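User: Hi! I have a protein structure encoded as tokens and I'd like to know what sequence might fold into it. I'm fairly new to this, so please keep things simple.
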């Protein structure tokens, strides 16, 4: 058995075992069902890659095509998994059945037109490709998969904005690893496109191109296995808030992972979104909530709570989470995450200027939960490292 065959077989077995482990977990139960189904589909794809690499399909041609439908369910399953993980209220999500109409129709077509055919016909399709409609189906599959990959990335981008509205620390809730999964998913589809081009141009044999997607799937399986088993539930006990309709107008967003903008950046003059206009606080009430929010930061130093959430801040200032979110967005031009972390950075800067305490002591005291998050936020806010900032302040 070659190294390629061993890796494909190992990936297939690993994905089955991981799917079983996910089905037994109580946390993120519905999301885990989608992920277990995805891993089961990947297991079949990897097994097919193993059989191709091992030469088993040549001797057992009636196995050819038994996984032809699998690529059609990968895109929907990744999308549904991402939707479930990022939805504040998954129970309100639409039923998933319509995402599988196309895969179901393709299975019916295979049963009617391909599976009953002779062994020689199946060998010919596997080695040289089929008629024009087979290529047309493959092109349709690529468009179908890429569309779902883009939709999953859009959901993750919205999630990144949403958690910034209710959490002051994003550790464990930002789903950065899920961005990796979505990116791998996109890469696999690109690999599928490359395999299609390789085959129709005759650059190499179809059997060589066919292992590209299973190899990418193997990598995806191990990434999923590493991260998902430790993922916490994100929105338990957290309020539902409305996102501003034009997020780029409210909080400039980095192309990379979400980090607070520079603390010295002047707020921009913004108009409230229509969502806020419909349920807008009276000016006097909004001003009173704003004053209580600022007092909670300056007098109570509420930002020092490492796990501070929007709901907790709302309780402290005798307002609803929606009202606090509205005031932050329309009057302070900040989302919750940015607002709290600006205060944390200012706390650290004051400590660096006036004391000789260790930097990490100041960072953790201010409410940061990790060294890497603090260092990234501090550099983004000041353009320098904490050590350099202290040295400049002392001169």
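Assistant: Happy to help. Inverse folding works backwards from shape to sequence: for each of the 395 positions I chose a residue that suits the local structure. Here it is:
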């Amino acid at each position: 058995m070659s190294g390629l065959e061993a890796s494909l077989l190992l990936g297939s077995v690993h994905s089955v075992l991981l799917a079983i482990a996910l089905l037994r977990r109580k946390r993120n139960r519905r999301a885990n069902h989608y992920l277990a189904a995805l891993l089961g589909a990947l297991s079949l794809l990897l097994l097919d890659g193993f059989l191709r690499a091992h030469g088993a399909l040549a001797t057992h041609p009636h196995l050819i095509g038994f996984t032809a439908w699998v690529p059609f369910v990968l895109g929907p399953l990744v999308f549904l998994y991402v939707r479930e993980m990022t939805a504040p209220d998954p129970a309100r999500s639409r039923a998933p059945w319509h995402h599988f109409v196309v895969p179901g129709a393709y299975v019916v077509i295979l049963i009617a037109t391909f599976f009953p055919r002779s062994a020689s016909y199946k060998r010919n399709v596997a080695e040289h490709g089929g008629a024009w409609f087979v290529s047309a189906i493959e092109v349709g599959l690529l468009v179908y998969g890429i569309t779902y990959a883009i939709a999953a990335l859009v959901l993750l981008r919205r999630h990144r904005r949403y958690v910034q509205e209710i959490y002051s620390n994003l550790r464990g809730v930002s789903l950065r690893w899920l961005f990796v999964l979505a990116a791998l998913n996109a890469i696999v589809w690109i690999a599928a496109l490359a395999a299609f081009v390789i085959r129709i141009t005759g650059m190499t044999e179809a059997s060589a191109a066919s292992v590209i997607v299973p190899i990418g799937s193997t990598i995806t399986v191990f990434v999923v296995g590493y991260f998902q088993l430790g993922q916490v539930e994100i929105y338990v006990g957290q309020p539902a808030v409305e996102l501003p309709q034009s997020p780029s107008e409210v909080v400039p967003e980095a192309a990379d992972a979400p980090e607070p903008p520079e603390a010295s950046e002047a707020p921009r003059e913004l108009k409230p979104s229509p969502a806020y206009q419909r349920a807008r606080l009276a000016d006097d009430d909004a001003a009173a909530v704003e004053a209580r929010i600022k007092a909670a930061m300056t007098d109570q130093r509420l930002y020092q709570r490492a796990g501070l959430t929007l709901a907790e801040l709302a309780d402290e200032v005798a307002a609803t989470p929606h009202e606090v979110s509205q005031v932050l967005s329309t009057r302070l031009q900040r989302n919750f995450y940015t607002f709290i972390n600006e205060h944390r950075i200012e706390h650290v800067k004051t400590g660096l200027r006036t004391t000789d305490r260790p930097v990490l002591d100041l960072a953790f005291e201010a409410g940061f939960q990790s060294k890497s998050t603090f260092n990234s936020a501090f550099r983004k806010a000041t353009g320098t490292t904490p050590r350099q900032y202290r040295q400049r302040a002392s001169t």
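A useful reference point when you look it over: Confidence is low (pLDDT under 50) at residues 245-278. Feel free to ask if any position seems puzzling.
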